[in-house]
Structures are given as C-alpha cells and as structure tokens.
Write a structure and sequence with these properties.
Two copies of one chain form a homodimer.
Chain A lengths: L7 H10 L5 H4 L2 H6 L1 E4 L2 E4 L7 H13 L2 H10 L2 E3 L9 E2 L16 H27 L4 E5 L6 H10 L8 E5 L4 H9 L6 E7 L5 H16 L8 E6 L12 E5 L12 H11 L1 H20 L6 H15 L4 E6 L7 H13 L17 E3 L11 H6 L6 E6 L9 E2 L2 E2 H18 L16 E6 L4 H22 L10 H19 L7 H10 L1
Parallel strand pairs in A: 5-6, 5-7, 7-8, 8-9, 10-11, 10-12, 12-15
Antiparallel strand pairs in A: 1-2, 2-15, 3-4, 13-14
Helix pairs in contact in A: 1-4, 4-12, 5-11, 5-16, 6-10, 7-10, 7-13, 10-11, 11-16, 12-16, 13-16
C-alpha cells in the first residue's frame, strides 16, 4: 500500500488547509447543530473544528484510501498487526476487543474466537472468586500494584466509577518505585482486610516486583501470611504464576498490550471487586458496543474514526503539535493520564510499518485536567497564548450522584455544562476588541464528546472510543500503534547505573559507564 | 526599552541555534559534572541541554540586555509590574515574595515592607488560631474549597508534605463545580470534626460559592452550625469577610496573584493545620531562601534565571513548543498541575507590556507526571516520536520516609535515581542501530534539578524556584506574567448560557445567544 503522504486526499487536504475556515466569522448555530454524529447516548459535536464539508469529504477519502475500516476489521479479527516488516519486532495479534467480545454478534475469525474464549474463562474464574470473597467477607480494601498500563487505565476507571462502588469497598494503587508511594498506601489500610493484586504480564517488571516485596514485608511484619492476601494477574507460566505464593492467578496474554488492557483481568479484578461482578460486565458491554460501532459503522457515521480524522487534520494540516483532553467531570480526573499513555505510547512513532522513517508528524502530546478547574489555570494560554491548542472536551448531560444544589436558580451540573459550551464557543469565535489585552484571536479548534451520564456502560464505551480513535490514527499514518521499543533504552541504562549502586554493597566491579558515573559523583 | 527580538544577543542565539551541539556525539562525563549550578542543597544539572559555553554566554547577555535581574529587584521591592501601558489593565504590585519576607535581610522598600507587615499580621493570627484549635481538639479534618490558584498550589504542597503531617490531621480539597466532586469529599469525612476553609479573593468566585453552599447545606442537614466550622480566606471587606458567617477570616490582597498565592494564607492555613505552625514557617523559610537567591545571585550562578534562559533557548531558538516537568517523587504528583497553571497562566500571552502583539513564541505547554510512572507511559513518544520534547526532571537524593527496602542489593530510592539519570542520558545521547525500530535519535534536551530531600523547607524553595523561573521568562520576553485577561471571555459566555438554563425556572426571557441555544437544543 502507499504511504500517508502519497494519498491523493493528502494533496487536497493540504490545499484546503491553506484556506481553513475562519471560525471568528463562520461559527453559526447551524454548524453546531448539524456537525454532529450520534451513537447510543453519545454525541460528537465538531462544529467548532476548522473544517468544512469539503474538508470532511477529503478526510473520509483519506480514511478510505488508507483502508482504515478494513484494518479495524483485521484487528478485531485477530490478524497480526503488531509488527514492523523485515526487522526484528513484536509479531502479534492485537485483541483487546476480544476481552469484551462476550455478548451479541461475536467475532467468528478463529484467532478472535479463541481469544474471547480465553477471556471468558478468566471472567468465569473472576466471577467465582468474587462470589467466594463475598461469602467469606474477608476483604474491604484492594491494593493494585502495577505500573503503566497495569495502573493508569484501571485507576482512571476506578476513580471514574467510584460513585457506583459497593458500600465499604475501596481500591488503592501503588505504581511508582518511589518507596514513599508504597508507604503511604500501605499505612492507610487495615492489612488484615486487604487484598493485594500484583499485575505484571512478564512477571518481571522491576517497579512492580520491588513494590510487591515491599508490601509482602509489611504483611509479614503484621504477622499476616501474604499467600492469603496476594493474587497475581500475569502471563500463564510467568514467574508470578505460582500457587505457592498467590491465593489466585488470573491470566493476560501478549495479544493485549498494556495500555489496551483495562478491560482484561488487569482492570477487571479491581473493578469487579469495587463494583461487583455485574458492574464490570456493564463496563465490558459498553466497550463492546463501541467496538461494534467502530467496526461496522460507515466512516461518515463512525464516531472514533471521525474523531481520528479531525485529529489528523489538526496535526498534519493545521500543524498543531498538542491536544488537550478536558473532561467536564471530576470523576474523570485521571482519564487524561490514561489517554496520555494510550495515545502517546501508541502513536509516538517515527517509522512506518515498513521500517522507514516517516516524513510527517505522528502522535501529538496529549495532556489535560478536568474542567472547570482548567479554566482557572491553563486556559489563559489556550485563549491568548501564541500557539493554538486543539481541545477535546468530554461532557455529560447528568451528574453521577442524584444530589445537586440549586444556587441562583441553576444546578451545579447546569453550571458545568454552561461552562463547557461557553468555552467551546469562546475558543472558536474569539472576541474583537480595541484593547489588545481583551482581544481573543479565536480559531482554537475544539470538539465535544457529549454522553448521557458517566456510569459503567458509558465508561466502557468511552474507553473503547479512545482506543479506536488512536488505532484509526495509527492505521491512517501506517505506523505500528501496538509496540513500544522506545521504552527499552532507558531501562537498559537504568540497569547499568543500578549496577554501580549495587557494587557499593557487593564489592563487585561494575561494567564501566562513565556517563552514569558522572551522575553518581554528583550525588555523593 | 527594546523588545526581545531587537536585542543583539537574540541575533547571536539564532546563529548558534542553526548549529546546536549534537549530544549524540557531544555528551561527556565532563559536561555532566561541570554544567552544574548549586545552591543550598539544590543542584541544577544541564549538561544534557543542547547548549555550549558560547550559547550560555549569549543567554546571559540576553538576561543582561533585558534587565532580568533588575526587574526581579523591582518586583520584590513592590513596583507596579502588573500592567499593560496605555490601556485598561490591572495596575498592581506583585508581592508574593513579601508573604515570606519574614526572616533575615528583609526588603526595605516601603511597598514591600508594608506588604510583609500585612503578611506578618495574618501569620500571627494563624498561629493563634492554630493554637486555639489545638487546645480545643475539635478538628481532625480540613476541607479547602477553592479553585485555580486557591486549589492547585496548596493541594500540590499538601500532597508533597503529607509525610510530615501531624498524626490524625488530614486535608481534602473541593474545587470543581461538578457536584460529584463535593459529594465525594463531604461523604468521606466526619463533619463534626471538620474545618472548612473557603478561599476566594473577591468573595464571588462562582464555583467556590456554589461549593460552599453545597457544603453548608450538608452541615445543616447534619444538625451542625456552619458558623462553628467555616473560615474564610478572602480580601478584606469582600462579601466573605463576615464574622456572622465565619469562625475566622484571613486576608489576601490584590498584589498576590492566585497562582502565586500558595505561601499566602491561601496555602498557609491548610499547611499550618496539617503540618503545625512550625511546618508552614519552614515552607516560608525555604521560599524566602530562594527569593533571596533569585534576587542577589549574579546571573551565572542564579538557578531560576539560568533555568529560565535554558527554557527560552528551547522555546525560541530550538522552537520546541512544550515542556514536560517530571518529578521522580510520587509525593509531587500534583506539582506539575500547579506548575502548569503557574507557567501557562503567567506566560501564555500574545501582547507585550506596551500592548503590541509579539512576533515570537511565549509560554509553552507545560505538562507532566511523576517518574518512573511516565516511563511506562508517554516516554515512548519522548524517545521516538517525531517532535523533541524538552524535559525538566526533579529528583531527590533521599526519600521522605526512612523506610526503604533492599531488593537485589539496591534500595528503591536508588532504583528511582538510576532511572532518572538513565533517562537523562538516553534522551540526550540516543542510540544508533541498524534496526530502525531500535534507533533512538537522541538530542532530546533535558535538565535535572536535584535536591536533598523533599521536606517543608525544600518544598518552599522548589515552589519559589519555579515562580521565579516563570517571572524571569516573562521579564525577558517583556510580557505581563501577572494578569489573566484570557479567562474572562469564557466566564462571560458561561453566564449567558446559564441565563438560558435559569429562564426555564424563572420564566424570564433570557438575552438571546443563538450559539449557546444551539448547544441547549442538542442537550434536550
């Protein structure tokens, strides 16, 4: 297939970008009402992006020319998409969708079917395990020890859905190798009633094993047997798949990448503990609904694909290097951190699937904080800084809790939505003024994903929406969104420096590493 | 005075940037050991920035030509720096440094002296108030209600210093107008033993007043009198300065901007409650030490000024639009969010102090998460993405808690530092490889601020280091880092939309706002 830059639509888009619509004049109520895609409670509103029908036509042509929907079908069917041709690389299927392909209209391709069967077995094990600990009433708290994908997605979802947690059930997370992190969490719970979930696919993640040892030592010190408290989420037959050390083991596989693993046992155990088994099933059901939508909906009605294309317009044609994702929902406080990993680790790549360096920009910097907080913080730069920042807003028609307060004739949720819509309009349309300090240039592109209410189903669908947005962008750019070779070099060098520290105790002679030694000289 | 682009040093720097040092060849142990500035337990290590002695000479010339140190002296002396000439603008002194100018070598300029005297009176009031609640033993928990600067800085510092909190003292924060946020916090404490601090300089911040009403309603419902639990941090004579409604009032002034207010009563009340009065005094002492350093140290030995210049090199000459700030300390989890506000709200400006649009880039996008977590997340893009991202690392020689664990002959803190140094080296020097997927281009500029241990003194100094880095950049760019006109437009439009919501209940006819109505049509 041809590369991204060689597609005819890219030439069209370049020409269109030279005369992108001026939203300070062009933003109308009709745009807001008609530039809208809907799907089961979700609305994607993009009248405040700098696009016209001609631009959208060219973007959908780009999706067609780069066979974005066909690659989504190949992914969900279990074809080997995680690879770089002709060089040593991961060589794997990409089947996070199989984790939730447990409902109607299941995939029939053998690889996908096998994977969803494996996921079904783990779900069944989880259902029994949760029923057992319910009967025994032993645990009130759960601590998840994991890092990266074993932490950010599950943590973001847990915080998002805490409002739906079973009474008296709490979850906590330890990720950082910083010993202060583990200390703080372990000191805040009653270990006798605490379940510890250790998550590492390889069973050898340095931070996670260190924190596990740290936690085990604390249990021993309290006279408690870790074997009665620790469970493993790991690869089958990994060093952690060891019934002599764990109360139970749940499995994960190399066809589910860490950052895509929130709906595997990596997220299911903690969410099942907090929400109950039916709660995690709802999360999976929501994700599956979005998987089916991404797979079956034509491009022009496809929410994650359309969002991916708008992102590519902003990145490659309007040349905007960052994206702020702003949920107007405090419960989504850590969702931007999850999306930061999901997007930047997937699409922060400089070679295409044939191993050639790309000559265009790939994944942007993703960052964000919840609104309205951000309005009192970095919005100054977004409105009046020298560089436009595209925004993706997330909003909800209703709050999670039914409790709200009427102050000055409106409810808090209405204030939240008023602010969300006001920002969308203000950023796009700007403001003329003879006072240069009150002039707003406008043309800050943004879009809103509006959903009904942040419940388990919606959270699952939202998670999958972003997974597919990211995957579609990778498909269109012809890069491998599923490996992460870029994290290796730092790991290797960290071990070399660690050897220097170690040598102080073992009296061994470490391999020379002058750059690392320079830092150690500064330390001492 | 002349503008940034007209300075002779800018021409030199442009020429030097065209041939910036290639760190894949040029990074040596000597660079790491010699490109180092030290100050009272802090080391700024910048051998991994793309600078040479010639570049540093030109940067220090730039500081000189733009009179950066003289402006710092003017700021700390209380001159009116928060203004734009010839147009309506804020017209204020900028005296957050006076909040901690309570120790040796105090400012003698009348404005600064007066401000530090006002701060001293509030500190004395706080000392008495804290002693009183200690004697009465009434409170275990404190909830701070505030948003933006009244939330991010105090929250970041509280989390940073939780390890030093008095036993049984906890703080919580409500910021978002999202009713789920207030619900979650209020449900998690024993209101009988809870002190509520409401923070708003004007006494009229919509989110804060709404959340205050929300909290008061909850106290009433529990049969508790809010008057016995609520205290105000506000401007003298603001609507909130009302002894009939508050147990106590502490004052703030218009010469301390929200994002610079963490060492005023905005942060001092909550930190004093958590750490005890001597703890907050240590924070102020640390901040003051950095204030004196920034004020008195020649440019070439001045840490925040040197950091500001390195940032300007990356932003204006290497043309890098974002900065990641990565503390290798879990306790600093919310410090990047505070710095995001501090930097982006201060320097996200498009006009200079004479009101003319600037023709160069000002404040970058600031974002970040603690290491090592980020290594398992967005570092892929930082190492192998298409755009270089400058990084500012923060590290500590020792952990906060004395408890650490030895696994495989090294301690967790050593693992943390090994990772920090390894990343610094890997990002700068990259890696050659015939496998394009294992090729790391390197030349990712980064620097490390290394301190001894994250204690109250160090946290105060770290806070002030970044305040002055930001202020120095604003001085050099000749922009007003102390106003925030860019947040006004969104507020105005939000009120217009709120009127539409309100009209549903009051049956009034709202002012027409067709763009807002378009969103309301989509909601219903």
């Amino acid at each position: 297939m041809s590369g991204f830059l060689d597609t005819p639509s890219v030439q069209k888009l370049k020409a269109l970008a030279a005369h992108a619509i001026d939203l300070t004049k062009g933003l109308t109520p009709e745009r807001i009402e008609t530039m809208r895609l809907s799907m089961a409670g979700f609305d994607l509103l993009y009248g405040t992006e700098r696009v016209t029908p001609e631009v959208m036509d060219a973007l959908y042509e780009l999706a067609d020319e780069t066979r974005a929907l066909k690659k989504m079908a190949a992914m969900q069917a279990g074809e080997i998409l995680n690879r770089i041709e002709k060089v040593e690389s991961e060589n794997r299927a990409v089947l996070h969708t199989a984790m939730r392909d447990q409902f109607e209209e299941r995939q029939s391709a053998p690889a996908a079917e096998e994977a969803s069967g494996m996921a079904a077995r783990e779900l069944k094990k989880l259902e029994h395990f949760l029923a057992k600990i319910d009967r025994e009433e032993r645990f009130t708290d759960l601590i998840q020890i994991g890092i990266g994908g074993s932490d950010l997605g599950p943590r973001a979802l847990y915080l998002a859905l805490q409002a739906f947690a079973r009474p008296g059930r709490r979850a906590h997370f330890i990720s950082n190798v910083d010993p202060d992190d583990a200390n703080a969490v372990l000191s805040g719970v009653d270990l006798k009633k605490t379940l510890v979930v250790v998550v590492s696919k390889s069973g050898s993640t340095l931070e996670t094993l260190t924190n596990e040892e740290f936690a085990r030592a604390r249990f021993h010190k309290m006279g408690l047997d870790p074997k009665e408290h620790f469970i493993a989420v790991t690869g089958e037959k990994s060093p952690m798949d060891d019934p002599s050390r764990y109360l139970a083991s749940f499995y994960m596989w190399d066809f589910v990448g860490g950052r895509y693993s929130a709906t595997s046992m990596v997220g299911a155990v903690v969410l099942g503990f907090a929400l109950g088994y039916p709660g995690i099933v709802e999360v999976l059901r929501g994700a599956h609904a979005m998987d089916r939508h991404a797979l079956t909906m034509p491009a022009r009605k496809n929410l994650p694909l359309t969002s991916a294309l708008l992102g590519i317009w902003n990145r490659n044609f309007l040349h905007l290097p960052t994206v702020a994702i702003i949920p107007y929902s405090q419960a989504l406080i850590r969702f931007p951190a999850h999306l930061q990993q999901l997007d930047m680790e997937s699409n922060g790549k400089r070679i295409d699937k044939q191993g050639h360096p790309v000559s265009f920009s790939t994944g942007p910097v993703i960052w964000g904080e919840p609104g309205t907080n951000g309005q009192h913080s970095f919005y100054q730069l977004i409105h009046q800084g020298t560089d436009p920042i595209p925004l993706e807003f997330i909003g909800f028609r209703k709050s999670q809790h039914p409790i709200d307060i009427e102050v000055q004739f409106t409810f808090s949720q209405e204030k939240l939505l008023s602010n969300l819509f006001a920002q969308s309009i203000a950023l796009a349309s700007g403001q003329a003024s003879s006072n240069p300090n009150k002039f707003f240039p406008g043309n800050r592109p943004n879009r809103i994903l509006l959903a009904d209410r942040l419940d388990p189903f919606t959270a699952g669908a939202l998670l999958a929406y972003y997974e597919h947005k990211v995957a579609f962008q990778g498909f269109i750019w012809n890069i491998n969104s599923f490996d992460q070779e870029g994290v290796q070099l730092g790991k290797v060098l960290a071990l070399k420096i660690l050897e220097q520290f170690k040598a102080k105790r073992t009296k061994e002679t470490p391999s020379p590493f002058p750059l690392g030694e320079a830092y150690l000289n500064i330390l001492s």
